[in-house]
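Components:
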Amino acid sequence: MPDDRLLITVAPTGAETAKADCPQLPTTLEEQVATAVECQAAGAAMIHLHIRDDEHRPTLELARLKDAVDGIREATELVVQLSTGGSVHDPLDARLKVLDAEPDSCSLTMGTTNFGDDVFLNPWPFVCELYQLSQERGVVPEFELFDLGQVHALHRLLDKYGLPAGGKVHCDLVMGVPGGMNGTADSLVAAVAALPDVTTSWSATGIGRSTLAVALAALSKGGHLRVGMEDVLTLSRGVPVESNRQLVERVVELGRIVQRTPMTPAECRELLGTSTAVPAGTVGD
Ligand code: KMH
Ligand code: ZN
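Structure:
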């Protein structure tokens, strides 16, 4: 793949924003499929997905997760990544069951983080269990790193359990969460320098007002980008995001300025190893 390619992941919904506070947030299956279609057309290659119930509340209900995976696969070529982080209120066992929906990829956060006034719980045994399950099922993890300690935890995980399904190591720096590393160029440079040598690709996203600083720093360091209404709800002070497509279009333009071309979903599969992902233990058999 040409080395100017830019992976844009869209995270359209998240679990923390209420529909009542943001009616343009895509929460129904129809809205999420429509968002996926227009974000792919705008330049996204992967979708990081949280789903909602009929009352627009976060849910990990398996049938709905499967419907979302199927619906997005029918309408787009996007790599479908399901969140295993869920909301701060989701129990660990329900988060493990997300893999039953058979996504291409899953998020896998490398440690516990204070999350505003809440706690995003990721105890080490849970991280190890989820990782081993992803290896067994052939689901490619995206290692989500909210602070530098989690980068070091990733070294421990890979040392103990080996490479992910598909053989590639893709990380996403989630910066600017109140409780995690801040969303600055300095923090990004430190985190990228600490990534394991076996890392094959990384992206970054900055929450809220840090979104542009993080995107520009990531582009400067040759990284990839995640954007979406999970992470930011304003385009500038007082100007609300009207659609995820706007956020994708904005980073396509940033990428164009630094001579990066949006990656296709097929190129994203190659980058992440999802097309070749086989359960651990069968690699090389
Ligand atoms: N909603 C956050 C508590 C993930 O998707 O894996 C966790 C989160 C991470 O969004
Ligand atoms: Zn998420």
